[in-house]
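Quick one: examine the sequence and fold tokens given here and explain what the tokens say about the fold. Here goes:
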Amino acid sequence: MLQNQTLTDSSPDAAHALPADSPWRLCVAPMIDVTDRHCRVFHRLLAPRARLYTEMITTGALLHGDVPRHLDFDETEHPVALQLGGSDPEALAESAKLGEQWGYDEINLNCGCPSERVQKGAFGACLMAEAPLVADCVKAMLDAVSVPVTVKHRLGLDYDDSYAFVRDFVGTLYDAGCRVFIVHARNAVLKGLSPKDNREVPPLRYEAARQLKRDFPDCTMVLNGGLADAAQSVAELPGFDGVMLGRAAWHQPRVLSEVSRIWWPGDVLLDDAAVVEAMRVYAATQTARGMPLRMMTRPMLGLVNGRAGAREWRRVLSDQKRLASNDPALLAEAWRGLAAVPA
């Protein structure tokens, strides 16, 4: 699906260079109802080296549900990580085994989601208050799989900005064997704020996140939270081993290509026409298996944002009557309409 790439780790700005062996240099955040397998295929076309993450999948869904529906993915997605939600060490170990068996490159534990639904399941951000339990979970998964076991977490809970809290949390997991931490540089407010507000209201504290790297220098620390564009991602990189983009990658997908172009200038990146054609071909295979076309067009709506004709592009690709035909030719039709609009 992807064109051959000429790969290099040179960088135009030495201050922003990272070790060539840093697999977490550019990551796309796990987002519920967003980063499904079709979205990840699309993101791979935009950023050949980005590390992709599944939506959070609970241990209950894997141990008592439809495993292929949750874990199947396209080979082009590699490197791809499975994010798990849960708090029972045994269930997490079994779920991690399933993830490794299905070919995932990493198992990530969610200790950052603040939603009430997640809290009722006793996992997500509320686990930060139970570091010894999280350590047991991490140890159980490390014993069960050979791929990296990582943790995505916040800086703190509610309105306690004490750095000591997150330092001790990371230290406890470090002692359990975890060496990769994805740090959402905000607190999680467990009561009174929606998940959306939790992405915007608690203040960003990038320096506190950087201090974690200084205190745990042999760990991989990835910065997440508030990174809105390529320039900011590059500017905030020093002091971390990588960045993770979330909503920016959903609303302005080409940000992934912009960051890739800065850090890997020798890579061959697909232009919009090639991306659309690759997605049309992919959609043809998926719709032939009964998958709704809208699952493939949804992540593409923001591809041409800022370009003349972008509104019509979004209108065509979200037209329910046209989508009902489940014909991937709709992608080519939308592209032809866009290309006909004067720049």
Observations:
- Residues 20-263 form a domain with the TIM Barrel fold (CATH 3.20.20.70).
